[in-house]
Protein backbone atom coordinates (compact mmCIF):
# COMPACT_ATOMS: atom_id res chain seq x y z
CA UNK A 1 0.00 0.00 0.00
CA UNK A 2 1.37 3.39 -1.03
CA UNK A 3 -1.36 5.61 0.34
CA UNK A 4 -1.89 6.72 3.92
CA UNK A 5 -5.32 6.34 5.39
CA UNK A 6 -6.89 7.89 8.44
CA UNK A 7 -9.94 5.80 9.29
CA UNK A 8 -13.23 6.97 10.77
CA UNK A 9 -15.63 4.39 12.20
CA UNK A 10 -19.42 4.52 12.70
CA UNK A 11 -20.30 6.71 15.68
CA UNK A 12 -22.30 3.85 17.27
CA UNK A 13 -19.06 1.86 17.61
CA UNK A 14 -17.32 4.57 19.64
CA UNK A 15 -16.70 2.43 22.70
CA UNK A 16 -14.94 -0.39 20.79
CA UNK A 17 -12.81 2.17 18.98
CA UNK A 18 -11.91 3.88 22.24
CA UNK A 19 -10.83 0.49 23.66
CA UNK A 20 -8.79 -0.32 20.56
CA UNK A 21 -7.00 3.04 20.61
CA UNK A 22 -6.18 2.52 24.27
CA UNK A 23 -4.38 -0.68 23.28
CA UNK A 24 -2.72 0.26 19.97
CA UNK A 25 -2.61 4.05 19.97
CA UNK A 26 -3.83 6.01 16.93
CA UNK A 27 -1.00 4.98 14.62
CA UNK A 28 -1.35 1.31 13.70
CA UNK A 29 1.59 2.02 11.37
CA UNK A 30 2.83 4.92 9.25
CA UNK A 31 0.12 3.91 6.77
CA UNK A 32 -2.95 3.30 8.88
CA UNK A 33 -4.20 5.72 11.50
CA UNK A 34 -7.23 5.22 13.68
CA UNK A 35 -8.86 8.63 13.36
CA UNK A 36 -12.21 8.91 15.10
CA UNK A 37 -15.93 8.36 14.65
CA UNK A 38 -18.34 9.52 11.97
CA UNK A 39 -22.10 9.94 11.78
CA UNK A 40 -24.71 11.39 9.43
CA UNK A 41 -27.02 14.31 10.19
CA UNK A 42 -28.76 14.45 6.79
CA UNK A 43 -28.78 13.10 3.24
CA UNK A 44 -27.67 14.74 0.01
CA UNK A 45 -28.73 17.58 -2.27
CA UNK A 46 -28.95 15.27 -5.29
CA UNK A 47 -31.70 13.18 -3.68
CA UNK A 48 -33.48 16.18 -2.05
CA UNK A 49 -32.62 14.74 1.36
CA UNK A 50 -30.13 17.37 2.60
CA UNK A 51 -31.84 19.11 5.53
CA UNK A 52 -32.68 22.81 5.09
CA UNK A 53 -34.41 25.53 7.12
CA UNK A 54 -36.60 26.32 4.10
CA UNK A 55 -38.25 23.77 1.81
CA UNK A 56 -36.88 22.73 -1.58
CA UNK A 57 -37.89 25.12 -4.34
CA UNK A 58 -38.89 22.18 -6.53
CA UNK A 59 -40.70 20.31 -3.70
CA UNK A 60 -42.47 22.82 -1.44
CA UNK A 61 -43.33 20.30 1.31
CA UNK A 62 -39.86 18.83 1.56
CA UNK A 63 -37.23 20.23 3.96
CA UNK A 64 -34.97 17.20 3.60
CA UNK A 65 -34.21 14.40 6.01
CA UNK A 66 -32.69 14.32 9.46
CA UNK A 67 -31.21 10.83 9.31
CA UNK A 68 -30.07 10.43 12.94
CA UNK A 69 -32.17 11.37 15.93
CA UNK A 70 -30.72 14.50 17.56
CA UNK A 71 -30.72 13.18 21.10
CA UNK A 72 -28.82 10.04 20.22
CA UNK A 73 -26.41 12.01 18.00
CA UNK A 74 -25.80 14.31 20.96
CA UNK A 75 -25.42 11.45 23.46
CA UNK A 76 -22.97 9.53 21.30
CA UNK A 77 -20.98 12.66 20.46
CA UNK A 78 -20.75 13.44 24.16
CA UNK A 79 -19.69 9.88 25.03
CA UNK A 80 -17.10 9.77 22.23
CA UNK A 81 -15.72 13.14 23.23
CA UNK A 82 -15.44 12.08 26.87
CA UNK A 83 -13.39 9.08 25.82
CA UNK A 84 -11.07 11.33 23.81
CA UNK A 85 -12.31 10.46 20.31
CA UNK A 86 -12.53 12.93 17.46
CA UNK A 87 -16.04 13.24 16.01
CA UNK A 88 -16.95 13.97 12.38
CA UNK A 89 -20.56 14.43 11.27
CA UNK A 90 -21.88 14.60 7.71
CA UNK A 91 -24.03 17.71 7.19
CA UNK A 92 -24.94 19.13 3.78
CA UNK A 93 -28.04 21.32 4.22
CA UNK A 94 -28.01 24.56 6.22
CA UNK A 95 -30.27 23.19 8.96
CA UNK A 96 -28.20 20.03 9.35
CA UNK A 97 -25.07 22.19 9.70
CA UNK A 98 -26.73 24.37 12.35
CA UNK A 99 -27.92 21.30 14.29
CA UNK A 100 -24.42 19.81 14.34
CA UNK A 101 -22.87 23.16 15.30
CA UNK A 102 -25.37 23.25 18.21
CA UNK A 103 -24.40 19.73 19.31
CA UNK A 104 -20.69 20.54 19.13
CA UNK A 105 -21.27 23.73 21.09
CA UNK A 106 -23.06 21.97 23.95
CA UNK A 107 -20.51 19.18 24.11
CA UNK A 108 -17.68 21.71 24.24
CA UNK A 109 -19.17 23.33 27.35
CA UNK A 110 -17.85 20.33 29.31
CA UNK A 111 -14.39 21.92 29.23
CA UNK A 112 -11.60 23.16 26.95
CA UNK A 113 -9.85 20.51 24.90
CA UNK A 114 -8.24 20.21 21.46
CA UNK A 115 -11.20 18.39 19.87
CA UNK A 116 -11.11 19.31 16.20
CA UNK A 117 -14.77 18.45 15.74
CA UNK A 118 -15.45 18.10 12.03
CA UNK A 119 -18.42 18.72 9.79
CA UNK A 120 -18.13 16.70 6.60
CA UNK A 121 -19.24 18.52 3.41
CA UNK A 122 -20.65 21.72 5.03
CA UNK A 123 -22.00 22.52 1.57
CA UNK A 124 -24.88 24.88 2.26
CA UNK A 125 -24.67 27.24 5.21
CA UNK A 126 -27.21 29.59 6.77
CA UNK A 127 -26.26 33.24 7.33
CA UNK A 128 -23.88 33.39 10.30
CA UNK A 129 -22.89 29.72 10.17
CA UNK A 130 -19.43 30.36 8.69
CA UNK A 131 -18.72 32.64 11.65
CA UNK A 132 -19.84 29.88 14.03
CA UNK A 133 -17.35 27.46 12.46
CA UNK A 134 -14.62 29.99 13.25
CA UNK A 135 -15.80 30.86 16.76
CA UNK A 136 -16.24 27.23 17.78
CA UNK A 137 -13.03 26.06 16.06
CA UNK A 138 -14.89 23.51 13.93
CA UNK A 139 -13.19 21.88 10.93
CA UNK A 140 -15.16 22.44 7.72
CA UNK A 141 -14.20 19.42 5.61
CA UNK A 142 -15.37 20.30 2.10
CA UNK A 143 -14.93 18.66 -1.31
CA UNK A 144 -14.72 21.24 -4.12
CA UNK A 145 -15.42 18.79 -6.97
CA UNK A 146 -19.03 18.46 -5.85
CA UNK A 147 -19.68 22.11 -6.63
CA UNK A 148 -19.34 21.38 -10.35
CA UNK A 149 -22.41 19.17 -10.36
CA UNK A 150 -24.25 21.12 -7.68
CA UNK A 151 -24.10 24.56 -9.28
CA UNK A 152 -27.05 24.02 -11.64
CA UNK A 153 -29.03 21.78 -9.31
CA UNK A 154 -28.59 24.05 -6.25
CA UNK A 155 -30.11 26.93 -8.19
CA UNK A 156 -33.03 24.71 -9.22
CA UNK A 157 -33.53 23.15 -5.77
CA UNK A 158 -32.84 26.16 -3.53
CA UNK A 159 -33.54 29.09 -5.79
CA UNK A 160 -30.92 31.57 -6.97
CA UNK A 161 -30.79 33.63 -3.79
CA UNK A 162 -30.28 30.82 -1.23
CA UNK A 163 -27.88 29.00 -3.55
CA UNK A 164 -25.74 32.12 -4.05
CA UNK A 165 -25.62 33.11 -0.39
CA UNK A 166 -24.82 29.80 1.18
CA UNK A 167 -23.09 27.31 -1.11
CA UNK A 168 -19.48 26.16 -0.72
CA UNK A 169 -18.39 29.20 1.25
CA UNK A 170 -14.62 28.67 0.99
CA UNK A 171 -13.69 32.32 1.29
CA UNK A 172 -16.22 33.13 4.02
CA UNK A 173 -15.09 30.16 6.09
CA UNK A 174 -11.44 31.23 5.84
CA UNK A 175 -12.35 34.85 6.55
CA UNK A 176 -14.15 33.64 9.69
CA UNK A 177 -11.02 31.79 10.82
CA UNK A 178 -12.71 28.44 10.36
CA UNK A 179 -10.42 25.49 9.81
CA UNK A 180 -11.00 24.67 6.14
CA UNK A 181 -9.82 21.19 5.11
CA UNK A 182 -10.34 20.45 1.41
CA UNK A 183 -10.24 17.04 -0.25
CA UNK A 184 -11.64 14.99 -3.10
CA UNK A 185 -14.34 12.69 -1.61
CA UNK A 186 -12.86 9.84 -3.70
CA UNK A 187 -14.18 7.26 -4.68
CA UNK A 188 -17.38 9.25 -5.34
CA UNK A 189 -15.38 11.62 -7.57
CA UNK A 190 -11.91 11.69 -9.13
CA UNK A 191 -9.02 11.23 -6.70
CA UNK A 192 -6.69 13.76 -8.38
CA UNK A 193 -6.27 16.63 -5.89
CA UNK A 194 -5.16 19.04 -8.64
CA UNK A 195 -8.81 19.16 -9.81
CA UNK A 196 -10.02 20.21 -6.38
CA UNK A 197 -7.31 22.80 -5.98
CA UNK A 198 -8.23 24.37 -9.33
CA UNK A 199 -11.95 24.20 -8.62
CA UNK A 200 -11.59 25.96 -5.28
CA UNK A 201 -9.72 28.75 -7.12
CA UNK A 202 -11.97 28.99 -10.17
CA UNK A 203 -15.42 27.62 -9.26
CA UNK A 204 -16.22 27.16 -12.93
CA UNK A 205 -18.91 24.53 -13.54
CA UNK A 206 -18.94 22.76 -16.93
CA UNK A 207 -20.73 24.83 -19.56
CA UNK A 208 -20.54 28.03 -17.51
CA UNK A 209 -18.62 31.10 -18.69
CA UNK A 210 -18.22 32.61 -15.24
CA UNK A 211 -17.51 31.45 -11.72
CA UNK A 212 -20.33 30.23 -9.49
CA UNK A 213 -20.24 32.70 -6.59
CA UNK A 214 -17.12 34.56 -7.65
CA UNK A 215 -16.56 36.08 -4.19
CA UNK A 216 -16.03 32.62 -2.64
CA UNK A 217 -13.03 31.71 -4.81
CA UNK A 218 -9.78 31.33 -2.89
CA UNK A 219 -6.13 31.86 -3.82
CA UNK A 220 -3.76 29.08 -4.85
CA UNK A 221 -1.87 29.54 -1.58
CA UNK A 222 -5.06 29.12 0.47
CA UNK A 223 -6.15 26.15 -1.65
CA UNK A 224 -2.78 24.44 -1.13
CA UNK A 225 -2.87 25.06 2.62
CA UNK A 226 -6.42 23.67 2.82
CA UNK A 227 -5.38 20.53 0.89
CA UNK A 228 -2.15 19.88 2.79
CA UNK A 229 -1.39 21.14 6.28
CA UNK A 230 -5.02 21.91 7.16
CA UNK A 231 -6.13 18.47 5.92
CA UNK A 232 -3.40 16.89 8.05
CA UNK A 233 -4.45 19.02 11.02
CA UNK A 234 -8.06 17.84 10.57
CA UNK A 235 -6.75 14.28 11.22
CA UNK A 236 -4.38 15.22 14.07
CA UNK A 237 -1.52 14.28 11.70
CA UNK A 238 0.14 17.66 11.25
CA UNK A 239 3.29 16.47 13.02
CA UNK A 240 3.82 13.73 10.40
CA UNK A 241 2.21 15.10 7.24
CA UNK A 242 1.03 18.21 5.46
CA UNK A 243 4.25 20.13 4.85
CA UNK A 244 7.86 19.59 3.84
CA UNK A 245 9.50 19.95 7.22
CA UNK A 246 12.24 18.24 9.15
CA UNK A 247 10.96 15.14 10.95
CA UNK A 248 7.89 14.65 8.73
CA UNK A 249 7.26 11.77 6.35
CA UNK A 250 8.40 13.43 3.09
CA UNK A 251 5.35 12.73 0.92
CA UNK A 252 5.46 15.15 -2.00
CA UNK A 253 4.99 15.57 -5.74
CA UNK A 254 7.00 17.30 -8.42
CA UNK A 255 4.86 19.38 -10.76
CA UNK A 256 5.64 20.10 -14.40
CA UNK A 257 5.59 23.86 -13.78
CA UNK A 258 6.38 26.36 -11.09
CA UNK A 259 4.23 29.07 -12.65
CA UNK A 260 1.01 29.70 -10.75
CA UNK A 261 -0.77 30.78 -13.96
CA UNK A 262 0.07 27.46 -15.63
CA UNK A 263 -1.13 25.64 -12.61
CA UNK A 264 -4.55 27.26 -12.68
CA UNK A 265 -5.14 26.36 -16.35
CA UNK A 266 -6.60 22.88 -16.77
CA UNK A 267 -4.25 20.42 -18.45
CA UNK A 268 -1.14 22.60 -18.35
CA UNK A 269 0.35 21.32 -15.11
CA UNK A 270 0.73 17.67 -14.30
CA UNK A 271 2.50 15.48 -11.79
CA UNK A 272 5.98 14.46 -12.98
CA UNK A 273 6.87 12.39 -9.95
CA UNK A 274 5.46 11.33 -6.62
CA UNK A 275 7.53 10.58 -3.53
CA UNK A 276 6.15 8.68 -0.57
CA UNK A 277 8.21 8.61 2.61
CA UNK A 278 11.00 10.18 0.56
CA UNK A 279 11.02 7.25 -1.89
CA UNK A 280 10.01 7.65 -5.52
CA UNK A 281 6.66 5.90 -6.04
CA UNK A 282 5.76 7.30 -9.48
CA UNK A 283 6.61 7.03 -12.32
C1 LIG B 1 -29.43 10.30 26.14
O1 LIG B 1 -28.85 10.41 27.43
C2 LIG B 1 -29.79 10.71 28.45
C3 LIG B 1 -29.01 10.98 29.73
O2 LIG B 1 -28.07 9.97 29.97
C4 LIG B 1 -30.78 9.56 28.57
O3 LIG B 1 -31.74 9.84 29.57
C5 LIG B 1 -31.48 9.38 27.23
O4 LIG B 1 -32.34 8.27 27.26
C6 LIG B 1 -30.47 9.20 26.11
N1 LIG B 1 -31.18 9.22 24.84
C7 LIG B 1 -30.87 8.47 23.80
C8 LIG B 1 -31.74 8.58 22.59
O5 LIG B 1 -29.91 7.72 23.77
From TrEMBL:
<feature type="domain" description="Amidohydrolase 3">
    <location>
        <begin position="6"/>
        <end position="281"/>
    </location>
</feature>
<dbReference type="Pfam" id="PF07969">
    <property type="entry name" value="Amidohydro_3"/>
</dbReference>
<dbReference type="InterPro" id="IPR013108">
    <property type="entry name" value="Amidohydro_3"/>
</dbReference>
<keyword id="KW-0732">Signal</keyword>
<protein>
    <recommendedName>
        <fullName>Amidohydrolase 3 domain-containing protein</fullName>
    </recommendedName>
</protein>
<dbReference type="InterPro" id="IPR032466">
    <property type="entry name" value="Metal_Hydrolase"/>
</dbReference>
<feature type="signal peptide">
    <location>
        <begin position="1"/>
        <end position="18"/>
    </location>
</feature>
Amino acid sequence: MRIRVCLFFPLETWSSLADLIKKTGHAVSNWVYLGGVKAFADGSLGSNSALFHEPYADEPDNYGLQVTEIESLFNMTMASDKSGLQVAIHAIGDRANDLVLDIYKSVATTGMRDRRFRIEHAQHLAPGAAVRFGDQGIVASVQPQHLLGDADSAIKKLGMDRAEKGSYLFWSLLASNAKLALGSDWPVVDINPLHDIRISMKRMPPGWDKAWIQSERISLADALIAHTISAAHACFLENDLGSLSQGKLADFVILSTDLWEDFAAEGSAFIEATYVSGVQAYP
